[in-house]
């Protein structure tokens, strides 16, 4: 399980970097950088814990993560260029983190006896909604709701692989590897070949398709 | 109580349609349509359940509703025009849903021994705040906070009728009918005769009234 | 403890005034004024209570506060100028309230055995995040995340003074006075001498520093 802790650590770092760059695009100060980074890194898990009534929250129990995000935000405030160079190398940790958080969230929801479709949604929420909260705070329409390389969809696919494995009684580590692999493969493939869902035009919009 | 289930179903459909049209106005993709529709349909009830510490949440317990919203979002993505035609017929289901959710929310809050004024607020939150959350996600100032045909006010009036009936010991089905009728009547009348509250100008705004 | 209740009352009034003026800048109606004022006044405490699983929520238990905010919003809708004159005298109550809510939040988190750094963050959330929620609802990038006289930082400093006092076993009333004094002093000094954190430019922004 030491491997899972490495993935979790990488995911927090990747999320925080995304948040710090987003906040600096809005010319926030250090407070903004730190809070937006926390929103990306801990927002999805917090929503999940509130929805499933799990206490204490993820980031309260793992008190080291807010400290790490604080340190990253400090680096982002002093040397913004570092953050950018760091983020460029974070596509793989980010995809791994999306996969891990999806699976953990789905697993908790299945444990809490949520209906399967709802469990998959809670997996996606855990993996992908930190970024949604951060985008909303920064006054942006959430990136993952707009046509862009697939993100939530990869998480959704992986959640169903996990649920399938659990229902069919596969060995736990196999289910874990297959569902994590599904998310990572689809995410990296979407980035590489620019897979995206089409945008929907409002039916009354004259410029729409 | 089968009638109440029909009203609930209609309210979820009406809420989802509002969300899908809102999201398509922002040119989101299917993920955005589905998530915004869920925010409208389940946001108010989720806020209520979190504030009153009720578990499991409304949409986790009624796992069929997220599936219905998923289907509607798919229709909205493939044939946006259908959604528009559907929404035009949804003023009555929407008003009924506003009424039902207001009453249910107020009732839960009274049960939890909240002060009466707070119970009315929680009723309004249940009925009307899904739309607020969706508007905020879509980067819009919430519609129900701006001058427009009365919405939250109708819900607030109905909540007080319900509370009055409970305090005066009316028969439960009479209280239910009267408070539901109050919300629906005020909402439809506001739409028909364009009743609205005036906007407030900032005192330092030179163009203000 | 009667003094603390006066401070709490003053803080709710100051928060509500901020919210009412913010909402009127967006030309909302009475519903918007009231809801945004509630978001400022109760948002931070609600987040804290949800994160620490405390029930009933602050504003449900103290049912008089929503009524007071309702009254203030009515005054704000009828005589907006009053609100502005009121707010100009509210810098001190607001700073006292920031201090009080920070300390209460930090104290609850320490009680719940949160790690100390997390406890300080929850103190800041309690004191300062109502305004963040209101800004997000009003479609503004949160004020306290942008370069402006220090606000969250004053709260953070006071939280650490409180934690320090508790860890070193100071007498409770001394710890209280010192940490409250720290927040108020830093906040009023920041306002007077315009202390602020620098904004961070995005590394790829050509107009950035």
Which key features would you list for this structure?
209 residues; mainly alpha; 9 helices
What can you tell me about this protein's structure?
- Chain A is an all-alpha fold and 209 residues long.
- Chain A has one domain (2-193).
- Helix content of chain A is 75%, strand content 0%.
- The first copy, chain A, has helices spanning 2-25, 30-52, 58-61, 64-78, 80-88, 91-111, 116-137, 152-168, 172-193.
- The radius of gyration of chain A is 17 Å and the shape is globular.
- Chain A starts with a helix and ends in a 16-residue tail after the last helix.
- Chains in contact: A-B, A-C, B-C.
Question: What's the short version?
Answer:
Three copies of one chain form a homotrimer. With 209 residues, chain A is an all-alpha fold.
Shape of chain A: globular
How many DSSP-defined strands of chain A? 0
Element pattern of chain A in H and E: HHHHHHHHH
- Which bin fits the share of residues in helices of chain A? over 70%
Rg of chain A, Å, rounded: 17 Å
Please tell me the total number of domains of chain A: 1
User: Which whole number gives the mean pLDDT of chain A?
Assistant: 92
Distance between the termini of chain A: 49 Å
Write the layout of secondary structure elements.
Three copies of one chain form a homotrimer.
Chain A: H1 2-25, H2 30-52, H3 58-61, H4 64-78, H5 80-88, H6 91-111, H7 116-137, H8 152-168, H9 172-193
Helix pairs in contact in A: 1-2, 1-4, 1-5, 1-6, 1-7, 2-4, 2-7, 4-5, 6-7, 6-8, 6-9, 7-8, 8-9
């Amino acid at each position: 399980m030491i491997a899972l802790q490495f993935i979790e650590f990488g995911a927090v770092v990747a999320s925080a970097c995304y948040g710090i760059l987003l906040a600096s695009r809005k010319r926030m100060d250090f407070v903004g950088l730190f809070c937006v980074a926390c929103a990306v890194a801990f927002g999805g898990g917090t929503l999940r814990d509130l929805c499933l009534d799990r206490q204490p929250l993820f980031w309260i129990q793992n008190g080291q993560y807010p400290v790490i995000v604080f340190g990253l935000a400090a680096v982002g405030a002093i040397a913004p260029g570092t953050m950018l160079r760091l983020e460029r190398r974070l596509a793989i940790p980010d995809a791994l983190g999306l996969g891990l958080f999806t699976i953990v969230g789905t697993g908790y929801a299945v444990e809490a006896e949520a209906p399967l479709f709802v469990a998959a949604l809670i997996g996606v929420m855990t993996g992908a909604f930190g970024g949604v909260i951060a985008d909303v705070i920064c006054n942006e329409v959430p990136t993952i709701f707009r046509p862009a390389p697939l993100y939530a969809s990869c998480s959704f696919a992986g959640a169903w692989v996990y649920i399938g494995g659990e229902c069919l009684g596969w060995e736990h580590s196999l289910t874990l590897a297959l569902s994590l692999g599904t998310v990572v493969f689809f995410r990296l493939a979407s980035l590489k070949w620019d897979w995206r869902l089409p945008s929907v035009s409002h039916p009354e919009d004259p410029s729409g398709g």
